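Changelog-adjacent note: as of this version, every example in the card shows the full chain rather than a window. The one below runs 808 residues end to end.
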Amino acid sequence: MASLEQAISRRLIQETPNALVVIDTDQRICYANPPAERIFGYAQGELLDQPLDLLLPPESRKAHREHIQRFLASEDRTRSMGERGEIRGLHADGTPFPAEATITRLEWEGSTYLVALLNDRSSARELEAERQRLAEILESTPDLVGIADPEGNVVYRNKSARDLLASPLSERDPRPHVQAAHPKEDGQRVLNEAFPEARETGFWEGENTFLNGDGNHVPVSQIIRAHYDGNGEVAYFSTIARDLRPYREAEHRLHILFAALDQAADMVWITDNQGVVEYVNPAFEAVTGFAAEAAKGHKVGALMKSDHHDQDFYARMWGQLLQGQPYRDVFTNRTRDGQEVHIDETISPVRDSDGKVTHFIATGRDISERLVLEDRLRQLAYYDPLTGLPNRTHFEEQLAHSLSRAERSGHSLALLMLDLDRFKDLNDSLGHPTGDELLVQVGHRLREAVRSSDLVARLGGDEFVILLDPVAGEEGVIRVAETLLQALEPRFDIQGTAFHTHISIGISLFPADAEDTSTLLQQADTALFEAKGAGGHSYRFFSPRHTQAATDRFQVEHGLHQALAEEACEPFFQPLVRLPTGAIIGVEALVRCRFPDSGEWIPPGRFISVAERTGLIHQLGAGVLKQACQAFRDWWAKGYSLERLAVNLSPIQLTRRGFSTQVAAILEETGVAPGWLELEITEEAVLWDEEIALEELEALAELGVVIALDDFGKGYSSPANLQQLPVSRMKIDRAFIQGVDHDPGNRTILRGLLGFAEGFRCRITAEGIERPEEAAYLRGLGIQEGQGFLYAHPLRAHELERTFLAGD
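Full-length structure tokens:
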């Protein structure tokens, strides 16, 4: 038996999974079994005669030595390690691990040894941590989780189940039966249906009912699973159940919502965040003609787009929606059969929990009939039913708004009162229907004769009124008045009868004559009375001096016609001077005309406005430009290398398409490079026909011609207007140059203008320099270029050459 016992002991020591280590009283290793060598990571025999510290982390070694010494000094035969705290071993690679150990005192052959039996607790710790994580998950899940033994006795419920059922496991009733959690019939169902099916197939799934702590029924969606032991017998059942009340309530609310949407009188449609339709209600189908199935899957814009709205409209809409803001407007759409329909729509973004827009919900109401009614009411209230022009009420409201704007901005307005000469006689002789048709045609011609920004209205009878807003001074008013007279000169054809009629015009000006609506109308009516008293087919200003000025302009027009016919218009030239040196760097061409009746050279201030009003400006401007370019090229041929030729443009020249082409032809004919030519414009150049003027200026700039802004600081210059113009030079008006050496007001204005020009990256020319002190002050500001009487008056080409160029 002794040898059998030794054999068994040896086999147990060698094959046990536990580490067995024998140490002497000096705490040196006398023996380590193979599991110990594997656990600590050493080769066979490598631990023999090594200190026990080799198997311990450095921070634990002192405590272990002291513990063993106390054990040796005691009478104990066996002691468990780690009773007061966790012990740790040390792998050969230097990594510590949790362990548990028992030591036994052994007396053999007169010596004392200690036998340590040790387990690696790493796997056990990991299993415990995993178990703890699973327990935490089960306790935190909102679903109901429970475990029951094969007989249906509950052994575990998670927090959600305990809270719902209000029956925590207790010492008094540690294993309640699953039936207690259900109403009677549902409890029987679990025992008779769910458990048997789970035993056979592994699980059962269905809807069931629990009883909460108040005895109320709680509907749940439940899964019961069977878990088997090694013999294929059910070891326990687990269940996961989800409270269906929130889903039932959501379904109920959703049902109510969709019922409300389906029965709503307003259109409702829902799209994804790309505008693709996912839902439409019956009202949508009724208004648009698109059935729900036909609309779904299509972009709502593609279904109903009418091309009534431009790209900017949709850009504003999408920009607002994608920022998460609702958008409301009246959309003009098309129905399935192509009919136009007006929808007052509100589109609202729908966000998810992260704030991302996922859908859009839109509501709309067909307001087509309302808009038609409103339009009819507006027509009746604000428009003349015969001519379709604004009536007196509409006109007076618009005039009041225009006066308010003009007062704020400082620009001028003109009021033209018109009526037909001898209309009563025509109406009485030809009948009222013919008279009405004549009024309709007159209204049409008046509307065609003025700008789109001007307002034409019928006050009643044969009396019309026109508001010019804005107006470019008295010259602009005269130009319009004469255009209106000419517009009615062609005969009218009414019901096969041709006849002529004329108008008389009375004019009042804001703010020169009056500053309120009623006074302006009264003064225009007074001027109209004077025009009719003078025989009709004419116009009169309220102020007599304006009427005299008109007479003077007719005389100028006659002289201008003669001067152009006899080629008596030519450019005079004023030098452009480099201020630091006084050297001439270029010239500005200024037109002069010799009127045959007087034989004198007439400055442009007396005839340019007449040329513009009559259209003669095109002939005059082209002739002067060609003469100036020819003179400039001749000077170059003689060796006078000037840098620039500046020529003024009239705003009227830019209203005719092809002007830039005409300039290009003149440059090519005279041999002047485009970069030598500088065309001077005022901001008024784009007021008469902005689209054409801007196109022509852009074409000139692309050609290489320099564009300069004349009279800078004197007009209506603003950043908004200047940004449209391809300007690279600004000429500061002489009004801000005079006395600038001693006038603090002009100094302040000038510095402001220089900053403004610098902001637009424009070069500067100072006009109207007459005194050396002015030139010195301008040089001190860094202005490089100027012109004025200080250097020379405008001269004819040969005079300039003899006086300035040939003498260089």
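Structural remarks: The chain has a mean pLDDT of 84.
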